[in-house]
Design a protein that fits this description.
Layout (H helix, E strand, L loop, with lengths): L1 E3 L5 E3 L1 H15 L2 H28 L5 E5 L2 E5 L7 H25 L8 H21 L7 H14 L1 H24 L3 H20 L10 H15 L3 H15 L3 H16 L3 H8 L8 H13 L3 H6 L1 H7 L3 H13 L3 H12 L6 H5 L11 H11 L1
Parallel strand pairs: 2-3
Antiparallel strand pairs: 1-2, 3-4
Helix pairs in contact: 1-2, 2-3, 2-4, 3-4, 3-5, 5-6, 6-7, 8-9, 9-10, 10-11, 11-12, 12-14, 15-16, 16-18
């Protein structure tokens, strides 16, 4: 990845060059035409991102630009930006693109008939920037128009406005996708279908989003905590995760921080505390955290919860230990059929003394159950 250091660090991913060359070749069919198109796309996208970045600098931020396969991304660490500041930063990207369009339009007012190559170059530059600016202003996430809609609605309606922006963007993206599929522009249709799916997925998950999830400082603190954990500084990570939990109280950041914290507590032998913080959010846990809760619930003798999580935990961690925990939990609940079923699953892993397992207190209440005895005989065969 090529990086240009400076006031605004700029990185260009190899896929940017590849996609730009592909677009150039499809539009020109010649090597020289492809090179020209790559230059036009590079300048157009870069100026667009500079619109974001220079505005961010005006608000005393430190932006960086990454040119990737489908355009560019300007990132920065927000520090309590107001909604109107976010709006201006996003808006100035398309405005800089429109500025390039106006410059190209002004140049075309000169008589360039004696220089057909230059006329063609400026004309292409004009069309590209008009098209790119219009597309970017469509109210579909992750395009700038979708970001502008999100910022405006979130400023007035809070987290509800964020959900509304996702729903509106999803509907518009579907309609645009269908339009391009009908006219057989399949590449653009597929792209907007992807945007629609991403918006739908975010909208579906947005029921778990809380106002603190939209706070950029909280997001950055979570990143810092994850980095500290990756670097092996578990004490610092633990403190940051606890701080996020205190600030958020609910939502995705809260759940994420709680899961990380539970794993750290488990590693440090504080199993009861890990269990206590996972239990209230059991329906929102990721698979690995749900599997951890399954194990902790067994140690806390919450056999009903073990039974509830039995199938999902085994799917995530198909081991003999998981199957045995399930069998013992169902046995304690005096449910012979699933208890015997999980015993059979555990027995299939091999190296298990079935008689010794059955002699444990977990199975004392169902040992004489006729159905259980019949099922155990089948396992022994």
């Amino acid at each position: 990845m090529l990086t240009f250091p400076g006031r605004i660090p700029i990185s260009i991913h190899p896929f940017f060059w590849l996609l730009a060359a592909l677009i150039g070749w499809l539009n020109s069919g010649t090597f020289l035409g492809t090179v020209i198109w790559v230059g036009i796309i590079l300048v157009s996208v870069l100026v667009h991102e500079l619109g974001h970045a220079l505005t961010a600098i005006a608000f005393k931020l430190n932006p960086r630009i990454d040119l990737i396969a489908l355009g560019g991304v300007t990132s920065y660490r927000p520090e309590n930006l107001k909604f109107w500041q976010q709006f201006i930063i996003v808006l100035n990207g398309p405005l800089f693109g429109i500025g390039l369009f106006l410059i190209a339009t002004a140049i075309l007012q000169f008589n360039l008939s004696s220089m057909p190559f230059l006329f063609s170059l400026i004309k292409t530059f004009q069309i590209v920037n008009l098209f790119w600016s219009i597309v970017n202003l469509l109210p579909v996430l992750p395009l700038d128009g979708g970001q502008l809609l999100r910022i405006a609605l979130e400023a007035f309606f809070g987290i509800k406005g964020f959900r509304i922006s996702l729903f509106i963007g999803m509907l518009i993206a579907v309609l645009i996708s269908l339009f391009f599929f009908i006219i057989q522009a399949f590449l653009i249709g597929a792209l907007f279908f992807l945007f629609a799916f991403q918006s739908f997925d975010m909208w579906r998950k947005s029921r778990y989003i809380s106002a603190p999830d939209r706070n950029e400082e909280n997001k950055q603190e979570l990143l810092d905590a994850e980095k500290a954990m990756q670097m092996g500084d578990k004490a610092q990570a633990k403190q940051l995760f606890e701080d996020i939990r205190q600030k958020a109280k609910e939502g995705i950041l809260y759940v994420t921080a709680t899961q990380y914290l539970a794993f750290l507590l488990f590693e440090q032998g504080e199993k009861k505390q890990a269990y206590d913080i996972l239990l209230p959010i059991k329906k929102q846990l990721a698979e690995d955290a749900s599997c951890l809760l399954h194990r902790l619930a067994f140690e806390e003798k919450n056999y009903s919860l073990v039974a509830e999580l039995s199938s999902s935990s085994y799917q995530f961690s198909p081991s003999q230990d998981t199957a045995l925990r399930n069998a013992k939990a169902f046995a304690c609940l005096q449910d012979p059929k699933p208890a015997a079923g999980w015993l059979q699953t555990a027995f299939q892993f091999g190296q298990m003394d079935l008689e010794q397992v059955l002699s444990e207190n977990f199975f004392s209440e169902i040992q004489k159950d006729p159905e259980f005895q019949t099922l155990i005989k089948r396992i022994k065969k």
